[in-house]
Amino acid sequence: MLKEITTSQNIVRYNGQSFFEEEDEIAVETALTIILDGDEFATMVCTPSELQELVVGFLASEGVIRFYQDIKSLHIDEEKGFAYVELVNKHNIQKDLHSKRFIGSCCGKGRQFYFHNDMKTAKTVMTKLTVTPEQCRDLMKKMQESSSHFQQTGGVHNAALCTSDGIVISRTDIGRHNALDKLFGYCIMNRIPLKDKIIAFSGRISSEVLLKAAKIGVGIILSKSAPTNLALNLAEELGITAVGFIRGNGFNVYTHQKRIQGIEYDRSSEVLVSRFP
């Protein structure tokens, strides 16, 4: 039996003048534990939807699998909150590498990562895709309009895989990382090419979110919120265009600005010489 992803509850609302009672929609939160080749691997707190995509995307993000065919079997017991995964080649779980914070360098460039598996799975993105300012604003608007669960509850994050012209697939979860893992899982399960894709995202661009985008292989990430400085350092090194604060008619372009059409540089000095309207 599938779990509901929203539930209703009677609340007391204040409208600035008086109190009144009404029914409100609340986002459902559940725990899902992955049992990998018979061993407990990880527990995620998530929205109980698209759980197969979530598990596949999470395992790929963690470097456990590269292809959907690496999974021999996958069974999800939603009632008990377990996902049982058996791999074609049994995984040697190194629990210390998946639980301890790791900051190191890569390729002699001083790149910083949180975990050991990030060094294995994060990759530099080389896409030549460009987008217009209008497309950035339109994709963010379409992503927000596509989430009925956010409109009902206000308690979830949204992520959408897009082309420059529209949304390919969108996913919702209480966890922003989970929403991205669901997109990753969908791409792996359906062999979606990613060189011409964009991610539109509702939350802030943290270093973890930026690494998720790099692992997926998408070169442009759009957000209505702010980035962190570590996220921008990683975006610069990993070749990702980070665009934030997409609200109304404006936005900020933080890294690899040349993918946004209308920004022009003096090639000899790399100095910005004109801006889009």
From TrEMBL:
Keyword terms of this UniProt record: Cytoplasm, Molybdenum cofactor biosynthesis
Main location: cytoplasm
Keyword NAD: no
Subcellular location: Cytoplasm
InterPro entries, alphabetized: Cytidine_deaminase-like (IPR016193), FdhD (IPR003786)
Catalytic residue positions: C107 (cysteine persulfide intermediate)
Domain of life: Bacteria
Family under the similarity heading: Belongs to the FdhD family.
Role summary: Required for formate dehydrogenase (FDH) activity. Acts as a sulfur carrier protein that transfers sulfur from IscS to the molybdenum cofactor prior to its insertion into FDH.
NCBIfam families: fdhD_narQ
Protein name per its UniProtKB record: Sulfur carrier protein FdhD
Organism whose genome encodes this protein: Neobacillus driksii
Gene: fdhD
